[in-house]
Amino acid sequence: MIETLTIENLGVIAEARLDLSAGLTALTGETGAGKTMALTSLQLILGGKPDPGHVRTGAKAARVEGTFLVADDSPVLAAIDDAGGAYDVDGGQAEIVVARQVPASGRSSAFIGGRRVPTAVLRSIAQGLVTVHGQSDQLRLATAAQQRQALDAFGGEEVAKALRQWGEAYSAHAKAEGRLRSFDENARENARRRLAYQALAAKVEEVSPRPGEDEALKAEAFRLENTESRFAGLSEAAARLSGSDTVESSAMEGIDAAVRALEQTGDVVDLLARLRSVRDELGDIAATLASAAADTEADPARLAEIYARRQELSGLRRELGMGNDEAIEAAEEARAALADLEDPESTRKRLEEECEHARKSMEAAGEALHEARSQAAGRLGALVGDELTELALANARFEIAVTEGQPAAHGADVVEFLLASHSGAPLRPIGASASGGELSRVMLAVEVSLAERAAQSDHTFLFDEVDAGVGGRAAQAVGRRLAKLAEKHQVIVVTHLAQVAAHAATQAVVVKEEDESGAKTNVTIVTGNERLGELARMLSGNDTEAARTHAAELLGGGPDVAR
Prior knowledge:
The chain has helices at residues 35-45, 75-83, 119-126, 135-141, 144-185, 187-207, 213-225, 227-242, 251-265, 269-295, 300-320, 324-341, 344-390, 430-433, 436-454, 472-485, 498-501, 528-540, 545-555, and strands at 2-10, 13-19, 24-29, 61-71, 88-90, 93-103, 109-112, 115-117, 130-133, 397-408, 411-420, 428-429, 460-464, 490-494, 506-515, 518-526. It is of the alpha+beta class. Among the domains are: 1-129 and 459-526, P-loop containing nucleotide triphosphate hydrolases (Rossmann fold), CATH 3.40.50.300; 203-340, no CATH class; 528-563, no CATH class. The strands form 3 sheets. Strands 1, 2, 4, 5, 6, 7 and 8 form a 7-stranded antiparallel beta sheet that branches. A hairpin with a 2-residue loop joins strand 7 and strand 8. Helix 5 (144-185) packs across helix 15 (436-454) and helix 7 packs antiparallel against helix 11. It is elongated, with a radius of gyration of 47 Å. The two termini are 35 Å apart. 34% of the residues are buried.
């Protein structure tokens, strides 16, 4: 509930503080006194859209601050924790400070628990604190989508669970249909792709290249093409090391002479051992070179094979426009793709079966959601019917029709609030069958029924002229019903009807005063004779004895209260 509301420099309100209590509070005042600004202040701390034009003339910014009290286990507190805000807890209640600052120019600021937050966060948290109902909300509930949402909210977890299951089934069916539709749309393209993949795989398989084959063949061809120069090189290297008829002095002979010379010194054992090791290694290298030279022979047939194979690989590269290793990889991918494209009839049959299974699951979920909504519609319709009797519409009949419609994300139901405003009248959509005053009371009945089921006891309901278009007994009925709702919740009603205000436990009057500095508006709690005078003004426009007597009767105290 809202404990205090402080307003600074908002419209005609220079500074005002309103202390609120539990139960029903009526906010009244003459037309033009500033009730709109008082209401705007409440809407601002609930995340409403700011208007710099509402900043008081000469002020740099308008500021509104509200203090809320909620139970220490309220889910709102978790949201405030997530936003980084702070609050005090004492005696099982948490105190939350919410503020909004609107500059004359620039962007507004929102604060929760001392922490600046985006307006969207403020709005989201505020929905758990206050529910606002006004004439615009009556129009809102006159739409099919909002009526469905109201029914779903009333249905609670039973409808919410069915709605979640529908959402999953609806999404699965949409995806299954999408896959089948995509398959059909791509059937011709898939046929072309299948032929292309087959041709690619066949061409690569025909040539059958091996990874790195062309480079290996290139190296082998180079060796065969240079057989004579290779033989000469190997032979000469072997001769230089081990000697031959064409070499006067070989490396081996020089090393042998060096070994013999060192053997005579007798004191360089390590060097002698190393030199002998070098001699042995050179001898082994010379033998290997001589063997390689002996094995080097021209092989024209093999060289011709290599030329033919390299030409075949080159042709594959030109035809496919890619290297041989790329062609091998592309062929593997083509064969994998063909596995999915080779049997389109079986693939389509499988997709059809998946789509049919998803459709049946969706229909089953739709039936469960329809049943849950229908049961909730019966319960809510009965509650609203009882409320209409309390609101001086005893002969009216209210029903909620839940009929079959087109599947959508919210289900396959069309929800419609129907009203027969008097005996013998046919049931028609409330927007088409109710007058302004009747619509106000019907919507009040709906909102009260929803509120008593869904909201916590510390929740606040703000009604902005919900009594528009009614008067007399109907207005008294609206007042009684708001007072009954206020037995469990804090209720604030902005009203111009004394019959409604008289049922309030607290009456706050918005008063506009003129002085040398201009017009100012104050918000004052009135009691006793002051309240009688305000009710008298609301009844007749003037504070007369007759009006006071009538006001006293509305308050339930009789003529003596007026004196």
